[in-house]
Amino acid sequence: MLKRHHKTEALILKASPYGEGHTIVTALTSGGAQLKAMAYGSRKLTSRIGGHLSPLTRVELALYKSRDMDIIKQAQNLESFLELKNSLSRMTKAFFVMELIEGFSNTGVGNRPLFDLSLMSLRGLQSSSNRDIEDLTVSCFQLNLLKVTGFMPELYTCVECRSSLNSNNYNFIIDIGGLCCTKCLSGHPGRAINISSKSVEILRQFDKGGTLFSELPLGSTVELRRLLDSSTGFWLDREIRSRRFMEHMNSRDIREPMSAIDMESV
Ligand SMILES: [Zn+2]
Which parts of the sequence belong to the DNA replication/recombination mediator RecO N-terminal domain (predicted)? Predict the structure, then answer.
Protein backbone atom coordinates (compact mmCIF):
# COMPACT_ATOMS: atom_id res chain seq x y z
CA MET A 1 0.00 0.00 0.00
CA LEU A 2 1.27 3.48 -0.91
CA LYS A 3 2.60 5.38 2.09
CA ARG A 4 0.95 8.77 1.90
CA HIS A 5 2.71 10.49 4.82
CA HIS A 6 6.46 10.90 4.66
CA LYS A 7 9.26 13.10 5.98
CA THR A 8 12.36 14.45 4.33
CA GLU A 9 15.19 16.84 5.03
CA ALA A 10 15.44 19.42 2.24
CA LEU A 11 17.07 22.64 1.12
CA ILE A 12 14.49 25.21 0.00
CA LEU A 13 15.48 26.63 -3.41
CA LYS A 14 12.42 28.62 -4.41
CA ALA A 15 9.07 29.66 -2.96
CA SER A 16 6.55 30.86 -5.55
CA PRO A 17 3.26 32.48 -4.46
CA TYR A 18 0.25 30.55 -5.69
CA GLY A 19 -3.41 31.53 -5.55
CA GLU A 20 -4.69 33.19 -2.41
CA GLY A 21 -2.06 32.75 0.27
CA HIS A 22 -0.51 29.49 -0.93
CA THR A 23 3.09 28.72 -1.96
CA ILE A 24 4.64 26.24 -4.36
CA VAL A 25 7.99 25.25 -2.89
CA THR A 26 10.89 23.92 -4.94
CA ALA A 27 13.47 22.11 -2.83
CA LEU A 28 16.36 19.67 -3.03
CA THR A 29 15.80 16.68 -0.76
CA SER A 30 18.62 15.13 1.25
CA GLY A 31 18.50 12.27 -1.26
CA GLY A 32 19.40 14.81 -3.95
CA ALA A 33 16.10 14.76 -5.86
CA GLN A 34 14.13 17.86 -6.74
CA LEU A 35 10.84 18.23 -4.90
CA LYS A 36 7.92 20.48 -5.79
CA ALA A 37 5.32 20.70 -3.06
CA MET A 38 2.32 22.83 -2.19
CA ALA A 39 2.08 24.70 1.11
CA TYR A 40 -1.58 25.67 1.49
CA GLY A 41 -2.22 28.90 3.38
CA SER A 42 1.48 29.43 4.05
CA ARG A 43 1.37 33.17 3.29
CA LYS A 44 -1.38 33.83 5.79
CA LEU A 45 -0.40 35.46 9.09
CA THR A 46 -1.70 32.51 11.07
CA SER A 47 0.39 29.96 9.17
CA ARG A 48 2.80 27.92 11.29
CA ILE A 49 4.85 26.72 8.34
CA GLY A 50 5.21 29.82 6.13
CA GLY A 51 8.15 31.22 8.10
CA HIS A 52 10.20 28.08 7.47
CA LEU A 53 9.76 27.94 3.72
CA SER A 54 11.88 30.82 2.48
CA PRO A 55 14.66 30.05 -0.02
CA LEU A 56 18.06 29.26 1.43
CA THR A 57 16.75 27.36 4.43
CA ARG A 58 17.42 23.73 5.36
CA VAL A 59 14.30 22.18 6.82
CA GLU A 60 12.65 18.95 7.78
CA LEU A 61 9.36 18.61 5.93
CA ALA A 62 6.39 16.42 6.76
CA LEU A 63 4.54 15.77 3.50
CA TYR A 64 1.36 14.18 2.30
CA LYS A 65 1.35 12.56 -1.11
CA SER A 66 -1.48 13.74 -3.31
CA ARG A 67 -2.16 12.96 -6.94
CA ASP A 68 -0.62 16.07 -8.52
CA MET A 69 1.85 17.41 -6.00
CA ASP A 70 2.99 16.61 -2.46
CA ILE A 71 1.42 18.79 0.23
CA ILE A 72 3.55 20.25 3.02
CA LYS A 73 1.87 19.61 6.38
CA GLN A 74 4.72 20.66 8.71
CA ALA A 75 8.12 22.32 8.40
CA GLN A 76 10.89 22.52 10.95
CA ASN A 77 13.85 24.83 10.51
CA LEU A 78 17.24 23.07 10.67
CA GLU A 79 19.63 25.70 9.25
CA SER A 80 18.90 29.31 8.28
CA PHE A 81 22.21 30.49 6.76
CA LEU A 82 21.68 33.81 8.54
CA GLU A 83 25.22 35.08 8.01
CA LEU A 84 24.83 34.38 4.30
CA LYS A 85 21.55 36.28 4.18
CA ASN A 86 23.09 39.24 6.02
CA SER A 87 25.60 39.88 3.24
CA LEU A 88 24.19 41.09 -0.07
CA SER A 89 27.28 40.00 -1.98
CA ARG A 90 27.24 36.47 -0.54
CA MET A 91 23.47 36.17 -0.82
CA THR A 92 23.41 36.99 -4.55
CA LYS A 93 26.05 34.30 -5.07
CA ALA A 94 24.00 31.85 -3.02
CA PHE A 95 20.99 32.54 -5.26
CA PHE A 96 23.16 31.85 -8.31
CA VAL A 97 24.24 28.54 -6.72
CA MET A 98 20.61 27.66 -5.98
CA GLU A 99 19.49 28.46 -9.53
CA LEU A 100 22.09 25.98 -10.77
CA ILE A 101 21.03 23.36 -8.21
CA GLU A 102 17.46 23.71 -9.43
CA GLY A 103 18.53 23.46 -13.06
CA PHE A 104 20.71 20.38 -12.58
CA SER A 105 18.44 18.42 -10.22
CA ASN A 106 15.63 16.14 -11.33
CA THR A 107 12.34 15.19 -9.76
CA GLY A 108 12.27 11.56 -8.74
CA VAL A 109 15.98 11.02 -9.46
CA GLY A 110 18.15 10.97 -6.35
CA ASN A 111 21.71 12.31 -6.28
CA ARG A 112 23.01 12.43 -2.70
CA PRO A 113 26.41 13.91 -3.71
CA LEU A 114 24.50 16.88 -5.18
CA PHE A 115 22.85 17.57 -1.81
CA ASP A 116 26.19 17.26 0.01
CA LEU A 117 27.90 19.55 -2.52
CA SER A 118 25.09 22.11 -2.22
CA LEU A 119 25.33 22.34 1.56
CA MET A 120 29.13 22.37 1.52
CA SER A 121 29.19 25.19 -1.05
CA LEU A 122 26.60 27.34 0.75
CA ARG A 123 28.44 26.88 4.06
CA GLY A 124 31.70 27.71 2.25
CA LEU A 125 30.14 30.88 0.84
CA GLN A 126 28.85 31.78 4.28
CA SER A 127 32.33 31.61 5.78
CA SER A 128 34.13 33.32 2.86
CA SER A 129 36.22 36.19 4.13
CA ASN A 130 36.28 38.30 0.97
CA ARG A 131 34.79 38.57 -2.51
CA ASP A 132 37.67 36.74 -4.21
CA ILE A 133 37.11 33.71 -1.97
CA GLU A 134 33.36 33.94 -2.63
CA ASP A 135 33.98 33.88 -6.40
CA LEU A 136 36.36 30.94 -6.11
CA THR A 137 33.84 29.06 -3.98
CA VAL A 138 31.24 29.58 -6.71
CA SER A 139 33.66 28.43 -9.45
CA CYS A 140 34.59 25.38 -7.40
CA PHE A 141 30.88 24.62 -6.92
CA GLN A 142 30.24 24.89 -10.68
CA LEU A 143 33.01 22.46 -11.56
CA ASN A 144 31.94 19.97 -8.88
CA LEU A 145 28.33 20.36 -10.01
CA LEU A 146 29.39 19.21 -13.48
CA LYS A 147 31.22 16.32 -11.83
CA VAL A 148 28.38 15.02 -9.62
CA THR A 149 25.79 15.36 -12.39
CA GLY A 150 27.87 13.50 -14.98
CA PHE A 151 28.93 16.49 -17.11
CA MET A 152 32.53 16.72 -15.93
CA PRO A 153 34.76 18.03 -18.74
CA GLU A 154 37.83 16.07 -19.82
CA LEU A 155 40.89 17.89 -18.48
CA TYR A 156 43.77 15.47 -18.93
CA THR A 157 43.76 14.06 -22.48
CA CYS A 158 42.08 15.01 -25.76
CA VAL A 159 38.36 14.39 -25.36
CA GLU A 160 38.17 12.96 -28.91
CA CYS A 161 41.31 10.91 -29.58
CA ARG A 162 42.66 10.54 -26.01
CA SER A 163 46.12 11.70 -27.04
CA SER A 164 48.17 13.87 -24.70
CA LEU A 165 47.74 17.62 -24.83
CA ASN A 166 50.15 20.39 -25.76
CA SER A 167 50.67 22.26 -22.50
CA ASN A 168 51.41 25.49 -24.38
CA ASN A 169 48.12 25.57 -26.24
CA TYR A 170 45.00 24.38 -24.42
CA ASN A 171 41.70 24.51 -26.28
CA PHE A 172 38.37 23.76 -24.64
CA ILE A 173 35.29 22.82 -26.64
CA ILE A 174 32.19 22.94 -24.50
CA ASP A 175 29.75 20.85 -26.51
CA ILE A 176 32.13 17.91 -26.92
CA GLY A 177 32.98 18.08 -23.23
CA GLY A 178 36.54 19.18 -22.60
CA LEU A 179 40.04 19.88 -23.84
CA CYS A 180 40.86 19.06 -27.43
CA CYS A 181 44.27 18.42 -29.08
CA THR A 182 45.45 20.62 -31.95
CA LYS A 183 44.92 17.79 -34.48
CA CYS A 184 41.24 17.22 -33.57
CA LEU A 185 40.64 20.95 -33.28
CA SER A 186 40.34 21.30 -37.07
CA GLY A 187 37.09 19.30 -36.93
CA HIS A 188 35.48 22.00 -34.77
CA PRO A 189 36.16 25.33 -36.48
CA GLY A 190 35.32 28.42 -34.45
CA ARG A 191 34.12 26.51 -31.40
CA ALA A 192 37.26 26.33 -29.27
CA ILE A 193 37.93 28.50 -26.25
CA ASN A 194 41.66 28.98 -25.81
CA ILE A 195 42.56 28.80 -22.13
CA SER A 196 45.78 29.40 -20.24
CA SER A 197 47.85 26.63 -18.67
CA LYS A 198 47.30 28.34 -15.30
CA SER A 199 43.53 27.92 -15.63
CA VAL A 200 43.95 24.27 -16.64
CA GLU A 201 46.14 23.76 -13.58
CA ILE A 202 43.47 25.32 -11.35
CA LEU A 203 40.70 23.20 -12.89
CA ARG A 204 42.75 20.04 -12.32
CA GLN A 205 43.37 21.13 -8.75
CA PHE A 206 39.61 21.61 -8.23
CA ASP A 207 38.98 18.23 -9.85
CA LYS A 208 41.32 16.49 -7.44
CA GLY A 209 39.52 18.09 -4.50
CA GLY A 210 42.38 20.43 -3.70
CA THR A 211 41.92 23.42 -1.48
CA LEU A 212 40.92 26.72 -3.00
CA PHE A 213 43.65 29.03 -4.15
CA SER A 214 43.40 32.17 -2.07
CA GLU A 215 45.30 34.28 -4.58
CA LEU A 216 44.95 33.90 -8.30
CA PRO A 217 45.93 36.09 -11.22
CA LEU A 218 42.89 38.15 -12.23
CA GLY A 219 43.08 36.82 -15.79
CA SER A 220 42.66 33.23 -14.57
CA THR A 221 39.59 33.93 -12.45
CA VAL A 222 37.89 35.79 -15.32
CA GLU A 223 38.79 32.99 -17.73
CA LEU A 224 37.60 30.27 -15.34
CA ARG A 225 34.33 32.03 -14.68
CA ARG A 226 33.69 32.42 -18.42
CA LEU A 227 34.47 28.77 -19.06
CA LEU A 228 32.37 27.42 -16.18
CA ASP A 229 29.45 29.75 -16.95
CA SER A 230 29.51 28.68 -20.60
CA SER A 231 29.68 24.99 -19.62
CA THR A 232 26.90 25.08 -17.03
CA GLY A 233 24.77 27.31 -19.29
CA PHE A 234 25.29 24.95 -22.24
CA TRP A 235 24.22 21.82 -20.34
CA LEU A 236 21.34 23.69 -18.76
CA ASP A 237 20.39 24.95 -22.23
CA ARG A 238 19.61 28.44 -21.02
CA GLU A 239 21.18 31.57 -19.62
CA ILE A 240 21.64 31.54 -15.86
CA ARG A 241 19.48 34.47 -14.86
CA SER A 242 21.01 35.28 -11.51
CA ARG A 243 24.57 35.49 -12.97
CA ARG A 244 23.79 38.86 -14.54
CA PHE A 245 22.42 40.15 -11.24
CA MET A 246 25.47 38.81 -9.43
CA GLU A 247 27.81 40.63 -11.84
CA HIS A 248 25.75 43.79 -11.39
CA MET A 249 26.11 43.58 -7.61
CA ASN A 250 29.83 42.76 -7.87
CA SER A 251 30.41 45.88 -9.94
CA ARG A 252 28.92 48.31 -7.43
CA ASP A 253 29.34 49.27 -3.84
CA ILE A 254 27.50 46.53 -1.96
CA ARG A 255 26.89 48.80 1.02
CA GLU A 256 24.17 50.46 -1.03
CA PRO A 257 20.71 49.29 -0.03
CA MET A 258 19.02 47.03 -2.55
CA SER A 259 16.63 49.05 -4.68
CA ALA A 260 13.19 47.96 -5.82
CA ILE A 261 14.58 47.58 -9.35
CA ASP A 262 17.31 45.25 -8.06
CA MET A 263 14.78 43.17 -6.17
CA GLU A 264 12.60 42.78 -9.25
CA SER A 265 15.51 41.53 -11.29
CA VAL A 266 16.35 38.67 -8.88
ZN1 LIG B 1 42.62 14.69 -30.36
Answer: 6-81
